[in-house]
Amino acid sequence: MHDPFDELIAALNPERLDENTFIGQTPSTSLKRVFGGQVFAQAMRSAQNTVEVNRQIHSQHGYFIRPGDPNLPIIYNVDRVRDGKSFSTRSVSATQKEKVIFSCQMSFQMPEKGFEYQISMPECKPPEECENDNERWSRISESLNPNNQDKPKLHRAKLRSIEMRSVDPIDFINPTPKAPKQLIWVRASKNIQDHLGLRVHQAVLAFLSDFNIMSTSLIPHGISILNKKLQPASLDHTIWFHDEFKVDEWLLYQLDSPRTSSSRGLNRGSFFSLDGRLVASTVQEGLIRVRD
Question: Domain span at residue 63?
Answer without folding.
Answer: 4-111+131-290
